[in-house]
Amino acid sequence: MTDLAKHIVDGAMFGSLYALIALGYTMVYGVLRLINFAHGDVFMVGAYSGLFAAGWLGVDSAPAPWKTAAILIYAMVVCMLLGLVIERVAYRPLRNAPRLTALITAIGVSLLLENGGQLLWSATPRSFPDLIPAGPARPFIVMGCALAMAVGLELFVKRTRTGRAMRAVSQDKDAASLMGIPVDRIISVTFAIGSALAAAAAVLYSSVNPSVNPTMGLLLGLKAFVAAVIGGIGSLPGALMGGLILGLSEELISAYGASSYRDAIAFTLLIVILVFRPSGLLGRGVAEKV
Amino acid sequence: MPVNGRVGALCGVLLLALAGCNKQAGRGGNAATATGDIVVGEYASLSGTKADFGITTTNGVALAADKINAAGGLLGRKIVLKKEDDQGDASQVGTVVTRFVTGDRVDCVIGEVASKLSKRAAPICQKAKTPMITPSSTNPEVTRIGDYIFRACFTDPFQGGVLARFALTTLHAKRAAVLRDVSNDYSVGLADFFVREFKRQGGVITVDKSCSEGDDNFRPQLTAIAASKPDVILAPVYYREIALIARQAKETGVKAPLLGGDGWDSPNVLELAGGALDGCYMSNHYSEAQGGPIIQKFVADYQAKFHTKPNALAALGYDAMNMYAEAVKRAGSADKAKVRDELAATRGFKGVTGTITMDADRNAVKDAVILQAKGGRFVYVATVKPVGGAEPAGK
Predict the structure, then answer these.
(1) B258-260: strand order across its sheet
(2) How far is B349 from chain A (nearest CA, A)?
(3) What residue of B is the nearest CA neighbor of A129?
(4) Around B335, how many Cα atoms within 13 Å sit in the side-chain half-sphere?
């Protein structure tokens, strides 16, 4: 494999992981118009859950596929519950509060998880088992998992009753409620799914970059948020596209360009896209209701 | 801050009573505490990604203070250690150090490990004319900030030179690649000094790549580095990053050994790297394997108290505290100006990390050791003396 092909494959792999996290941002934004800043820290909890599950199963490197799947599912379930609890405890009481209040609460939840993590698990980085052994197949396995989940989500949203209810809530919460849609339950489902996807991304990401620590969600959360904004926040295919653009540009700049300007270039890209498409590449412009 | 607030208030009242409400009197004279405890403020990153640095350093400082107190204190006065967590964050450093010098009115400040953070604290200590000793910040700029700023370690012009000469003469390397952390003053400085010395002695730098603190994926840079076919790779980053770099280097098919500085030093760096660091070299401040009664005693005391082996940062924290205690003894008081003069006059101080002599720029002049990772631990390879005149002058 030539270097260029390798860079493209690696970039797409990280891009697909950013996309998985970005989906959580975008879904929550879709139904609540809330930037859930705690999402990156849910990702971190997902990584730790995976680490503990691997410990219980006695996994060190290259385990049987069923064990990897078990670890993945365990982390997803833990984060699903965490997402439900966060939504119930932190955001639901503020459902009718000004949007800024919810935003600040999200930052508070993020700090709580980060510092709670340091208290429980110490700030020392820990090594993560190689669930997916290094090799030419790994990027494709990771991408395959990420893509399968993204497609599953898209089908869920488009084809199921709950999915339809989610779309209805995202269009107009009050009207949806008047039509008999249990808005609170739909919002809970949205958080649960978003958090589970973050956990899946965390387990995959950590087995590629095997170092977990309680503040790891900060930077990744930010990147995924940028990916969601590039693609158009609120749009599921947009999140996927944004993730891929970010992952590929990061990889290629690090490899060929000036690696010290990587983040600068990535964020310049964001600004340029937002200048020409203020609601992101695939986002729909929303007329402000007066 | 209920406790600190109370102590601060008490100090304030005493100062008002004894020295008048003049700020200057409180700073210089220190009359209020002349008979009370000697207060030392120690700030470090006890949480965050650099927590291993802060925790081990704090342990070393606390061990030294405990031993001094157990032996009757300093000039008959007890040392009280105020510890603060700066979370590895530059803005937190400003807050805690300002509190040390204005609220707690400490007699001395010890910290930080990271040069970037020491540079943030130094102007505050200099302005308050409070001696600050950084145990392990190696960037030359730190002590240039003012004449109250000292360090217990060598500097990066020396460390970079040591690594370059080691690569050239011992490893017979002709071509070196560099992977530096551009968000980190320490890393950039060390890389610069290495590159200068390596080139001066006829070596070639194949590529000079960058990363940032907090990065997880170094494969793009490593692929480019591997393609440039270097004999050694200099990666002067911190322990979290080097563990990932080492693992990914193996994966990318990089054969050349990695070379780094004291930033690699953490009790669990080898475990994090999962064996991938085997065969790589780092320069450090001390090695347990050097032996000697001072080192053995320190290692035994440290293990008895904290139940783990100390690293070089713990040893430097220990030395920084003892260096201060020596200066106070020689000065015959904890008066900050007198202690400053005595710290500057430190000659032949026998520390765990070697014999420390302060140069004119308040940097400790002493040996460096080269260690190699082998089978899950760092083994001692060589000691490099500061003399020889081969080290490039600081910029």
Answers:
(1) B204-211, B175-181, B232-234, B258-260, B281-284, B368-374, B377-384
(2) 33
(3) B274
(4) 12
CA distance A54 to chain B (A): 16
- Cβ proximity of A281 and A238 under 8 Å: yes
Q: What tokens appear for A37 in the block?
A: 């800043």
Q: Using the CB atoms, write b or e for B55-92: b if 16+ within 10 Å.
A: bbbbbbbbbbbebbbeeeebeebebbbbbbbbbbbeeb
Would you list the DSSP string of B24-78? Answer: HHHHHT-GGGTTSPEEEEEEE--SSTTHHHHHHHHHHHHHHHHHHHHTT-BTTB-
Cβ contacts of B247 on chain A, cutoff 8 Å:
210
Q: Would the CB atoms of B212 and A7 count as touching at under 8 Å?
A: no
Strands, E, within B154-257: which ranges? 175-181, 204-211, 232-234
The torsion angles phi and psi of B232, rounded to 5 degrees, stand at -140, 160
What whole-number distance in Å separates Cα of residue B353 and Cα of residue A84?
Answer: 52
How many angstroms separate the CA atoms of B320 and A77, rounded?
A: 49
Three-state secondary structure call for residue B354: strand
Single out the residue of B316, B303, B307, B235 nearest to residue B269, CA to CA: B235
From A5's Cα to the closest Cα of chain B, the distance in A is 12
User: What integer best gives the mean pLDDT of chain A?
Assistant: 90
Closest to B32 in 3D by CA, of B98, B104, B100:
B104
- By Cβ distance, the residue of A127, A208, A258 closest to B274 is A127
The four Cα atoms B385, B389, B392, B395 give a dihedral, to 10 degrees, of: 100
Cβ–Cβ < 8 Å for B90, B117:
yes
Cβ atoms of B118 and B142 within 8 Å: the answer is yes
Its pTM surpasses 0.90: no
ipTM rounded to 2 decimals? 0.84
Residue A277 CA to residue A246 CA, distance in Å, equals: 16
3-state secondary structure B273-293: HCCCCCCCEEEECCCHHHCCH
Q: Please, what is the angle between helix B336-344 and helix B312-331, to 10°?
A: 120
- Model confidence pLDDT, tens digit, residues B251-289: 888 989 999 999 999 888 998 998 899 999 999 998 887
Half-sphere exposure of A207 (CA within 13 A, CB side): 31
pLDDT in tens, B105-139: 999 999 899 999 999 999 999 999 999 999 999 99
- Binary contact (B210, A252; C-beta < 8 A): no
Q: Which residues pair with A223 in a beta bridge?
A: none
Looking up tokens 């996290």 gives A21
